[in-house]
């Protein structure tokens, strides 16, 4: 019998599919990491199911999260995004995503990718937690505070320790699938 983390059972098919096929799996592609970071920023104050339902609209609006393209957005493009009813139209979040694409390009110019930068902070290893209950899973940790601080030092925006913790879970640096979950990979 397939068992899932409790949160994967509380929303739509999008949420369940995301849990089963993406969440907690090691992600190293810089574009994919940028997409997840951007979606995590959009999710702040909202719920992940809503963001997943709008994911294709986000991809369409943000040129499939191609870092080079997003980094080149000008004021007119950001205004267009803030009027796009298919996505979350928060101007601060949109501005942060464009800024973060520019910072990711700067990392590349310095000889590293967004993926390499993030994974290096984790010594290129996943942290596998063995929580029994959803209530045990923290919303932030000292490690997410450290990563948030390092991202902020580089110039990333909208990357507090709670958003970063969720981001690290999403890309597999932190594996918080509950101990009984059929999708926990060791």
TrEMBL record:
It comes from the Bacteria. GO terms for molecular function: DNA-3-methyladenine glycosylase activity; metal ion binding. Keywords: Metal-binding, Zinc. Zn(2+) binds at residues 5, 19, 177, 181. InterPro entries: Adenine_glyco, DNA-3mA_glycosylase, DNA_glycosylase. GO terms for biological process: base-excision repair. SUPFAM superfamilies: DNA-glycosylase (SSF48150). This is DNA-3-methyladenine glycosylase I. It comes from Liquorilactobacillus uvarum DSM 19971.
């Amino acid at each position: 019998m397939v068992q899932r983390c409790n949160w994967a059972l509380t929303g739509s098919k999008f949420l369940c599919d995301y849990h089963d096929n993406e969440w907690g799996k090691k992600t190293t592609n810089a574009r994919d990491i940028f997409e997840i970071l951007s979606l995590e920023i959009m999710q702040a104050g909202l719920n992940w199911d809503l963001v997943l339902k709008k994911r294709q609209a986000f991809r369409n609006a943000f040129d499939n999260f191609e870092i080079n393209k997003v980094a080149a957005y000008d004021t007119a493009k950001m205004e267009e995004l803030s009027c796009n009813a298919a996505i979350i139209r928060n101007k601060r979040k949109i501005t942060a995503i464009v800024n973060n694409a520019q910072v990711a390009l700067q990392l590349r110019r310095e000889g590293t990718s967004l993926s390499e930068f993030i994974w290096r902070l984790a010594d290129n290893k996943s942290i596998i937690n063995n929580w029994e209950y959803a209530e045990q899973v923290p919303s932030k940790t000292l490690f997410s505070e450290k990563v948030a601080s390092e991202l902020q030092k580089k110039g990333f925006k909208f990357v507090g320790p709670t958003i970063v913790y969720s981001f690290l879970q999403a890309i597999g640096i932190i594996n918080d699938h509950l101990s009984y979950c059929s999708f926990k990979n060791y």
